[in-house]
Specification:
CATH superfamily of the largest domain: ATPase, nucleotide binding domain
CATH topology of the largest domain: Nucleotidyltransferase, domain 5
CATH class of the largest domain: Alpha Beta
Structural class: alpha/beta
Number of domains: 2
Strand content: 15-25%
Shape: globular
Number of strands: 13
Strand order of the largest sheet: 3-2-1-4-7-13
Radius of gyration: 20 Å
């Protein structure tokens, strides 16, 4: 089977669509990626959803996102070839797994995608994990293990809106997979760039602002006292803890240059990753960096500077997978695990109390055909092949 994964993260910059060949050896499973930025009005609607929204406005945003996902799916299929199903992560609007009761909310109408494409859609991956006592995030680490496990232990860092770390044991190592969100990735940097440019740019392109500034150690030390950084894994975070409001509160007390502000936020991301890595992961042979932050040379350089003992490498040239494709591929793979009814090792990742199958299935017009594809491996096993 070929799966199309659709991913839009907390950066709210657009949608990545990646195709994974589930029947191919892992080294050949990546087929291609297609990316599309959100329109400015849709991005504004997503960012506005960080605050309270009336039910009607949330429902409209759900449909607008569904239409966007459907458009991206159709364009990706036209460019990359036919697929058998779609796995849709959706746009995270709320993530508070430690509330009482814990909850997480990803929106973007899966029905719009299924109707537009005729394909079965696997969606809503996080709810079952939270219902079973887990954090609901990060969910991609088992895919990291499938894709990147080797003789030596490895670390994978995804620098999306938030930063998440995955520690993968080496082959023959009986220790479990470990993973968690270390804190902010690009979310605070993006917010600072928008604020300082008065909305004319959405990110510190190539890290140029940070590169022109100087890290101010005194405010950085205060920022690193954020309670999330002291929280012990399993843990996950979102805009509820790290958002534009936090950036504005820091800026209100800022007494240095604008470029120093961006440089110091860049250092915050790098040092919070380094502290988390040292505090809560075993040793590894290298750190592979993916996500939009991997395209920020100032941020990657800051990571290497605070981790002199660990080779920090950009994921794409060392894996053949573009940095923007990894998470979309992960959800394509997770969709396949859902369709096959498989549970995954999340106890040391999300803290889930019991194994659960993640995802809801919305049958498309191809459902009967897809059932035949799903039955074929089982029949082959029954025949001893």
């Amino acid at each position: 089977m070929r799966a199309l994964g659709l991913m839009s993260g907390t950066s709210a910059d657009g949608v990545d669509a990646a195709v994974l060949d589930l029947a191919a050896p892992r080294e050949q499973a990546y087929v291609g990626v297609y990316s599309q930025t959100f329109s400015a009005p849709l991005r504004d609607m997503i960012l506005a959803a960080n605050g309270p929204l009336p039910v009607e406005q949330m429902a409209r945003l759900d449909r607008h996102l569904g239409a966007c996902y459907a458009e991206v799916a159709q364009a990706a299929i036209a460019q990359l070839g036919p697929v058998d199903f779609i796995a849709l992560h959706g746009q995270t609007i709320r993530h508070q797994p430690r509330a009482e009761p814990g909850f997480t909310l990803q929106i973007g109408s899966a029905a719009d995608v299924a109707i537009a494409t005729g394909l079965t859609v696997v969606h809503d991956f996080r709810q079952a994990d939270v219902a079973a006592g887990g954090e609901g995030a990060p969910l991609v680490p088992p895919f990291h293990q499938y894709l990147f496990q080797s003789d030596q232990a490895r670390l994978i860092l995804n620098l999306g809106g938030m930063a998440n770390l995955t520690w993968i044991p080496g082959l023959g190592d009986s220790r479990p997979l470990q993973a968690f969100d270390s804190g902010p990735g690009n979310v605070l940097l993006d917010a600072a760039a928008r604020m300082l440019s008065r909305g004319t740019v959405n990110c510190d392109l190539d890290g140029s602002l940070a590169a022109a500034g100087k890290i101010q150690e005194k405010p950085l030390a205060l920022w690193l006292n954020h309670p999330y950084f002291r929280q012990i894994p399993p843990k996950s975070t979102g805009r509820e803890s790290f958002d534009e409001q936090l950036v504005r509160s820091w800026w209100a007390d800022w007494a240095y240059a604008e470029t120093d502000f961006v440089a110091t936020i860049t250092a915050l991301t790098a040092r919070s990753v380094a502290d988390a890595l040292r505090n809560w992961t075993p040793g590894a042979s290298e750190l592979l960096v993916f996500g939009g932050g991997a395209e920020n040379p100032t941020l990657v350089g800051a990571l290497q500077a605070v981790l002199p003992e660990l080779p920090v490498r950009i994921g794409a040239p060392n894996s053949g997978i573009p940095v923007q494709a990894l998470e979309a591929l992960a959800f394509a793979w997770l969709g396949g695990q859902c369709l096959l009814g498989r549970t995954l090792p999340y106890a040391q990742v999300t803290g889930v109390r019991q194994p659960v199958v993640l995802g809801n299935i919305l049958p498309g017009r191809n459902w009967s055909k897809l059932l035949g594809l799903l039955a074929a491996p089982a029949e082959a096993c029954a025949d001893g092949h």
